[in-house]
Specification:
The protein has 341 residues and is α/β, with parallel strands linked by helices. 36% of the residues lie in helices and 18% in strands. The protein has 11 helices and 12 strands. The strands form 2 sheets. An 8-stranded parallel β-barrel has the order 1-4-5-8-9-10-11-12, surrounded by 9 helices. Strands 6-7 form a two-stranded antiparallel ribbon. α3 links the parallel β4 and β5. The longest helix is centred in the middle third of the chain and has 18 residues. The structure holds ligand PBG. The site of ligand PBG has 11 residues, from α6.
């Protein structure tokens, strides 16, 4: 067959040739997202039969443990290997010191035990930070300091917080958690947690460090879900990273790996894909990225308004996180994406 058209440009390379058919496009695809890449975060509450919708996270709800079991069964059938748990703690159980975080009869350890009994192969990630449990909404414990002038102020007590995180991690380990994920950003917590876990006989428990966690506005809907926004005027900028910094992320990652982290995380994901890529190039452990509540919410909101094709954009967004270098992606869209993959 001869073409009626004559080639005018005489190009040696025509990248579009590989885009002509679906078969050619599939053959030249560089990144393939699979359900195994995804982790579904869950918000949990006391009670039974509870499915409390979270208005700023369309499609997401706070679940009681019995309902969570049904959801996890579906995720397992879809091939999603793991979940992360975040508790909505009743106001009456919150204290300045966050002691509920290491109550062996608390919501999180009970949920972990129930899940691991029902699904031994499920990867359960337990959060390690105090914010759902403190009346201050801070991830750490506050200490009162005094300026030379005599004026008093509050600051996060790093080392006392690490002692509390150890108690929380051991509590989750006793319940059977597979992975401890410190999301608090205190200095030195990875080494301290690794040491404490090993000493207590939990060498098998992994640590997924939130190594480069930024002080981000994109956590808003998560704080709605848990009613965990910082109270009393202090923000989290003295421990979470400055959004302007990338080299500092590599420093945090190096420190956490030196202290024994098995995996490192960048959070949020989409506004920090350059950081995901830099971390991926710098390390040989699995790199995780957290596609956070606000990233999820903005796509859902635009889709609900008819401004975007929500399904298509969600897939594109999460694929881009993998393309940037993430091996593990925590996303609230895990279930809906896995169902389409
Ligand atoms: C706190 C924590 C936060 C998230 C996970 N763990 C919020 C914060 O630092 O205030 C946010 C996750 C999300 O927005 O989806 N330890």
């Amino acid at each position: 067959m001869t073409s009626s058209r004559e080639s005018r440009l005489h190009l040696t390379e025509r990248p579009r040739r590989l885009r002509r058919t679906d078969a050619l496009r599939r053959m030249s695809r560089e990144t393939v997202l699979t359900p195994s890449d995804l982790i579904q975060p869950f918000f949990i509450v006391e009670g039974s039969g509870q499915r409390q919708p979270i208005p700023s996270m369309p499609g997401q709800a706070r679940l009681s443990v019995d309902v969570l079991l049904e959801e996890v069964k579906q995720l397992q059938d879809l091939g999603v290997p793991g979940i992360a748990l975040f508790p909505k703690v009743d106001d009456g159980r919150k204290t300045v010191g966050g002691d509920e975080a290491w109550n062996d009869d608390g919501l999180v350890p009970r949920a972990i035990k129930t899940l691991k009994d029902a699904f031994p192969d499920l990867m359960v990630i337990g959060d390690c930070a105090l914010d759902p449990f403190t009346t201050t909404g801070q991830d750490g414990l506050l200490a009162e300091q005094t300026w030379p002038s005599g004026q008093q102020y509050l600051e996060i007590d790093n080392d006392r917080t690490v002692e509390a995180l150890i108690k929380q991690a051991l509590c989750e380990a006793r319940a059977g958690v597979d992975v401890i994920a410190p999301s608090d950003m205190m200095d030195g917590r990875i080494g301290a947690l690794r040491g404490a876990l090993d000493e207590a006989g939990f060498e098998r428990v992994c640590i997924l460090s939130y190594a480069a966690k930024y002080a981000s506005g994109f956590y808003g809907p998560f704080r709605d879900a848990l009613d965990s926004a910082p109270r009393g005027g202090l923000d989290k900028k003295t421990y979470q990273m400055d959004p302007a910094n990338r080299r500092e992320a590599l420093r945090e990652v190096r420190l956490d790996l030196e202290q024994g982290a098995d995996m490192v995380m960048v959070k949020p994901a989409l506004p920090y894909l350059d950081v995901v890529m830099a971390v991926k190039e710098a390390v040989s452990v699995p790199v995780a990225a957290y596609h956070v509540s606000g990233e999820y919410a903005m796509l859902k909101a635009a889709a609900e308004n008819g401004w975007l094709d929500g399904d298509r954009c969600m897939m594109e967004a999460v694929l881009s996180i993998k393309r940037a270098g993430a091996d593990v992606i925590l996303t609230y869209a895990a279930k809906e994406l896995a169902a389409k993959l």
